[in-house]
Design brief:
The chain is 84% helix and 0% strand. It contains two helices and no strands. The protein has one domain. By secondary structure, the chain is an all-alpha fold.
Length: 43
């Protein structure tokens, strides 16, 4: 989970030059929220 967060932060710093970064971040955010919801339901 921490690795994924570092990956997101890395991409936020490195990719702002590219317009695709918005789409990419949105995709990561969806995956991240989906995983966290899934983990909460398993508790």
């Amino acid at each position: 989970m921490i690795v994924l967060l570092k990956f997101v932060i890395f991409n936020l710093i490195i990719l702002p030059k590219f317009e695709k970064s918005k789409y990419f971040f949105n995709l990561i955010y969806k995956i991240f929220t989906y995983k966290s919801k899934k983990m909460e339901s398993e508790k």
